[in-house]
Amino acid sequence: MSSTPKSLGLDTDLHQYLVAHGTPPDAVLQRLADDTSAMGPIARMQIAPEQGAFLTMLAGMLGARLIVEVGTFTGYSSVCLARGLVPGGRLICCDVSAEFTARAVQAWHEAGLDDSVELRLAPGADTLRAMPLDDLIDLAFIDADKSGYAVYYEEILQRLRPGGVIAVDNVLWSGRIIDSTDTSVDTVALRAFNDMVLADDRVDCVMLPIADGLTLCRKR
Ligand SMILES: C[S@@+](CC[C@H](N)C(=O)[O-])C[C@H]1O[C@@H](n2cnc3c(N)ncnc32)[C@H](O)[C@@H]1O
Predict the structure, then answer these.
(1) Which end of the chain, N or C, is surrounded by fewer C-beta atoms within 10 Å?
(2) Each residue of 34-61: pLDDT tens digit?
(3) For residues 12 and 30, what is the distance between their CA atoms, to the nearest angstrom?
(4) Tell me: the pLDDT tens digits for 105-144?
(5) 77 close to ligand 1 (CB < 6 Angstrom)
(6) 126: which residues sit within 8 A by CB, 6+ positions away?
(7) % of the chain surpassing 70 pLDDT
Protein backbone atom coordinates (compact mmCIF):
# COMPACT_ATOMS: atom_id res chain seq x y z
CA MET A 1 0.00 0.00 0.00
CA SER A 2 1.42 3.41 -0.89
CA SER A 3 0.22 6.76 0.43
CA THR A 4 1.20 10.41 0.31
CA PRO A 5 3.37 11.11 3.36
CA LYS A 6 2.00 13.64 5.82
CA SER A 7 4.77 13.25 8.40
CA LEU A 8 7.45 15.90 8.53
CA GLY A 9 11.13 15.26 8.76
CA LEU A 10 11.87 17.61 11.66
CA ASP A 11 14.87 19.88 11.25
CA THR A 12 16.61 21.15 14.38
CA ASP A 13 14.54 24.32 14.71
CA LEU A 14 11.22 22.56 14.26
CA HIS A 15 12.26 19.84 16.70
CA GLN A 16 13.20 22.48 19.28
CA TYR A 17 9.80 24.10 18.77
CA LEU A 18 8.07 20.75 19.32
CA VAL A 19 10.04 20.06 22.51
CA ALA A 20 9.37 23.59 23.78
CA HIS A 21 5.62 23.07 23.38
CA GLY A 22 5.27 19.95 25.49
CA THR A 23 5.46 19.60 29.27
CA PRO A 24 9.12 20.29 30.09
CA PRO A 25 11.32 18.07 32.28
CA ASP A 26 11.18 19.10 35.94
CA ALA A 27 14.30 19.65 38.07
CA VAL A 28 14.73 15.92 38.82
CA LEU A 29 14.59 14.89 35.16
CA GLN A 30 16.78 17.79 34.07
CA ARG A 31 19.44 16.91 36.65
CA LEU A 32 19.30 13.29 35.55
CA ALA A 33 19.61 14.21 31.87
CA ASP A 34 22.55 16.51 32.60
CA ASP A 35 24.38 13.91 34.68
CA THR A 36 23.74 11.19 32.12
CA SER A 37 24.95 13.48 29.35
CA ALA A 38 28.22 13.90 31.26
CA MET A 39 28.77 10.11 30.89
CA GLY A 40 29.66 10.69 27.23
CA PRO A 41 28.33 9.04 24.05
CA ILE A 42 26.56 6.28 25.98
CA ALA A 43 24.06 8.94 27.08
CA ARG A 44 22.45 8.47 23.67
CA MET A 45 20.70 5.44 25.17
CA GLN A 46 18.47 7.75 27.21
CA ILE A 47 15.02 8.43 25.79
CA ALA A 48 14.21 11.92 24.44
CA PRO A 49 12.42 14.40 26.75
CA GLU A 50 9.33 14.55 24.55
CA GLN A 51 9.17 10.77 24.70
CA GLY A 52 9.29 10.95 28.49
CA ALA A 53 6.36 13.34 28.59
CA PHE A 54 4.50 11.01 26.24
CA LEU A 55 5.13 7.96 28.47
CA THR A 56 3.82 9.80 31.55
CA MET A 57 0.68 10.75 29.66
CA LEU A 58 0.22 7.24 28.27
CA ALA A 59 0.51 5.65 31.72
CA GLY A 60 -1.98 8.17 33.08
CA MET A 61 -4.45 7.60 30.24
CA LEU A 62 -4.31 3.85 30.86
CA GLY A 63 -4.85 4.30 34.61
CA ALA A 64 -1.82 2.05 35.00
CA ARG A 65 -1.52 0.03 38.23
CA LEU A 66 1.31 -2.22 37.03
CA ILE A 67 3.96 -1.13 34.56
CA VAL A 68 6.99 -3.13 33.45
CA GLU A 69 10.08 -1.60 31.89
CA VAL A 70 12.83 -3.63 30.20
CA GLY A 71 15.94 -1.45 29.90
CA THR A 72 16.19 1.19 32.64
CA PHE A 73 19.73 2.59 32.24
CA THR A 74 20.06 5.73 34.43
CA GLY A 75 16.32 6.02 34.95
CA TYR A 76 14.83 8.77 32.77
CA SER A 77 12.04 6.67 31.25
CA SER A 78 11.32 4.95 34.56
CA VAL A 79 10.73 8.25 36.36
CA CYS A 80 8.37 9.29 33.55
CA LEU A 81 6.47 5.99 33.61
CA ALA A 82 6.17 5.89 37.41
CA ARG A 83 4.77 9.41 37.45
CA GLY A 84 1.80 8.17 35.42
CA LEU A 85 0.89 5.37 37.84
CA VAL A 86 -2.32 5.51 39.83
CA PRO A 87 -1.70 6.01 43.59
CA GLY A 88 -0.39 2.73 44.99
CA GLY A 89 0.63 1.49 41.53
CA ARG A 90 3.94 -0.29 40.83
CA LEU A 91 6.66 -0.07 38.21
CA ILE A 92 8.96 -3.07 37.83
CA CYS A 93 12.28 -2.16 36.19
CA CYS A 94 14.43 -4.82 34.50
CA ASP A 95 18.11 -4.21 33.80
CA VAL A 96 21.43 -6.05 34.02
CA SER A 97 23.64 -3.12 35.00
CA ALA A 98 24.12 -2.27 38.68
CA GLU A 99 26.32 0.62 37.63
CA PHE A 100 23.75 2.34 35.39
CA THR A 101 20.79 1.64 37.64
CA ALA A 102 22.50 3.07 40.73
CA ARG A 103 21.83 6.41 39.09
CA ALA A 104 18.20 5.41 38.51
CA VAL A 105 17.78 4.49 42.18
CA GLN A 106 19.02 7.95 43.12
CA ALA A 107 16.59 9.58 40.69
CA TRP A 108 13.64 7.57 42.07
CA HIS A 109 14.55 8.78 45.55
CA GLU A 110 14.79 12.40 44.42
CA ALA A 111 11.44 12.09 42.66
CA GLY A 112 9.74 10.60 45.75
CA LEU A 113 9.18 7.30 43.93
CA ASP A 114 10.97 4.90 46.31
CA ASP A 115 7.71 3.10 47.16
CA SER A 116 6.51 2.86 43.54
CA VAL A 117 9.50 1.35 41.74
CA GLU A 118 11.12 -2.09 42.10
CA LEU A 119 14.43 -2.88 40.42
CA ARG A 120 15.07 -6.43 39.18
CA LEU A 121 18.77 -6.79 38.35
CA ALA A 122 18.79 -9.81 36.03
CA PRO A 123 18.36 -10.55 32.33
CA GLY A 124 14.96 -9.18 31.34
CA ALA A 125 13.73 -12.53 30.01
CA ASP A 126 14.39 -14.22 33.37
CA THR A 127 12.57 -11.51 35.31
CA LEU A 128 9.55 -11.57 33.01
CA ARG A 129 9.27 -15.38 33.02
CA ALA A 130 9.28 -15.33 36.82
CA MET A 131 6.33 -12.92 36.96
CA PRO A 132 2.94 -14.47 37.73
CA LEU A 133 0.57 -14.83 34.79
CA ASP A 134 -2.36 -13.43 36.77
CA ASP A 135 -0.69 -10.18 37.92
CA LEU A 136 -1.94 -8.24 34.93
CA ILE A 137 0.29 -5.61 33.34
CA ASP A 138 -1.33 -2.38 32.11
CA LEU A 139 1.67 -0.90 30.30
CA ALA A 140 5.14 -2.07 29.34
CA PHE A 141 8.10 -0.24 27.85
CA ILE A 142 10.73 -2.24 25.94
CA ASP A 143 14.05 -0.44 25.51
CA ALA A 144 16.84 -2.97 26.10
CA ASP A 145 19.01 -5.22 23.87
CA LYS A 146 17.41 -5.36 20.44
CA SER A 147 17.90 -9.10 19.94
CA GLY A 148 15.79 -9.69 23.05
CA TYR A 149 12.78 -7.64 21.94
CA ALA A 150 10.77 -10.60 20.57
CA VAL A 151 11.14 -12.57 23.81
CA TYR A 152 10.26 -9.56 25.99
CA TYR A 153 7.22 -8.84 23.83
CA GLU A 154 5.93 -12.42 24.06
CA GLU A 155 6.44 -12.75 27.82
CA ILE A 156 4.80 -9.37 28.46
CA LEU A 157 1.88 -9.99 26.10
CA GLN A 158 0.97 -13.16 28.03
CA ARG A 159 0.70 -11.03 31.18
CA LEU A 160 -0.89 -7.92 29.61
CA ARG A 161 -4.52 -7.08 30.30
CA PRO A 162 -6.84 -6.68 27.30
CA GLY A 163 -6.56 -3.02 26.31
CA GLY A 164 -3.06 -2.85 27.83
CA VAL A 165 -0.22 -1.42 25.81
CA ILE A 166 3.37 -2.44 25.02
CA ALA A 167 5.48 0.55 23.90
CA VAL A 168 8.63 -0.40 22.00
CA ASP A 169 11.52 2.00 21.44
CA ASN A 170 13.99 2.39 18.54
CA VAL A 171 11.77 0.78 15.91
CA LEU A 172 13.04 3.13 13.18
CA TRP A 173 16.66 2.64 14.30
CA SER A 174 17.91 6.01 12.99
CA GLY A 175 16.47 5.10 9.58
CA ARG A 176 18.67 2.02 9.24
CA ILE A 177 15.56 -0.12 9.49
CA ILE A 178 14.98 0.42 5.73
CA ASP A 179 18.64 0.39 4.69
CA SER A 180 18.90 -3.00 3.01
CA THR A 181 22.70 -2.82 3.06
CA ASP A 182 22.63 -2.83 6.87
CA THR A 183 22.61 -6.45 7.95
CA SER A 184 23.98 -5.94 11.47
CA VAL A 185 22.54 -8.18 14.16
CA ASP A 186 20.51 -5.45 15.88
CA THR A 187 19.08 -4.07 12.63
CA VAL A 188 18.02 -7.51 11.43
CA ALA A 189 16.47 -8.26 14.83
CA LEU A 190 14.48 -5.01 14.81
CA ARG A 191 13.24 -5.61 11.25
CA ALA A 192 12.07 -9.09 12.17
CA PHE A 193 10.44 -7.71 15.32
CA ASN A 194 8.53 -5.00 13.44
CA ASP A 195 7.29 -7.58 10.90
CA MET A 196 6.30 -9.98 13.66
CA VAL A 197 4.22 -7.35 15.49
CA LEU A 198 2.44 -6.36 12.28
CA ALA A 199 1.45 -10.00 11.68
CA ASP A 200 0.32 -10.59 15.28
CA ASP A 201 -3.48 -10.66 15.37
CA ARG A 202 -3.51 -10.46 19.18
CA VAL A 203 -2.68 -6.73 19.00
CA ASP A 204 -3.44 -3.52 17.15
CA CYS A 205 -0.28 -1.56 16.49
CA VAL A 206 0.79 1.92 15.47
CA MET A 207 4.32 3.14 14.83
CA LEU A 208 4.89 6.72 15.97
CA PRO A 209 7.74 8.84 14.54
CA ILE A 210 8.65 10.16 17.97
CA ALA A 211 12.40 10.20 18.68
CA ASP A 212 13.88 6.96 17.20
CA GLY A 213 10.45 5.50 16.47
CA LEU A 214 8.02 4.14 19.06
CA THR A 215 5.55 1.35 18.37
CA LEU A 216 2.44 1.02 20.51
CA CYS A 217 0.88 -2.47 20.60
CA ARG A 218 -2.56 -2.62 22.20
CA LYS A 219 -3.81 -6.04 23.23
CA ARG A 220 -7.19 -6.92 21.75
C1 LIG B 1 18.71 2.00 25.74
S2 LIG B 1 19.14 1.70 27.41
C3 LIG B 1 17.65 2.09 28.25
C4 LIG B 1 17.41 3.57 28.33
C5 LIG B 1 16.35 3.96 29.34
N6 LIG B 1 15.03 3.48 28.95
C7 LIG B 1 16.32 5.49 29.56
O8 LIG B 1 15.31 6.13 29.28
O9 LIG B 1 17.33 6.02 30.00
C10 LIG B 1 19.22 -0.06 27.43
C11 LIG B 1 19.40 -0.70 28.80
O12 LIG B 1 19.14 -2.11 28.63
C13 LIG B 1 19.94 -2.81 29.54
N14 LIG B 1 20.04 -4.21 29.09
C15 LIG B 1 20.87 -4.74 28.16
N16 LIG B 1 20.67 -6.05 28.05
C17 LIG B 1 19.68 -6.36 28.91
C18 LIG B 1 19.00 -7.57 29.26
N19 LIG B 1 19.32 -8.75 28.68
N20 LIG B 1 18.03 -7.52 30.20
C21 LIG B 1 17.69 -6.34 30.78
N22 LIG B 1 18.28 -5.17 30.49
C23 LIG B 1 19.26 -5.18 29.57
C24 LIG B 1 21.26 -2.04 29.54
O25 LIG B 1 22.00 -2.30 30.72
C26 LIG B 1 20.80 -0.60 29.43
O27 LIG B 1 20.72 0.00 30.69
Answers:
(1) N
(2) 999 999 999 999 999 999 999 999 999 9
(3) 20
(4) 999 999 999 999 999 999 999 999 999 999 999 999 999 9
(5) yes
(6) none
(7) 96
Q: Domains along the chain?
A: 12-219 (3.40.50.150)
**Which residue has the CA at smallest separation from atom 26 of ligand 1?**
73
CA of 4 to the centre of ligand 1 (A): 36
Threshold 0.85, pTM exceeds: yes
How many angstroms does the Cα of residue 111 sit away from the middle of ligand 1? 21
DSSP 3-state of 13: helix
- Predicted confidence at residue 8, as pLDDT, reads 67
Type of residue found at 157: L
Which residue's C-alpha comes closest to atom 16 of ligand 1? 145
Best of 83, 96, 99, 210 for a ligand 1 pocket test (most atoms within 8 Å of beta carbon): 96
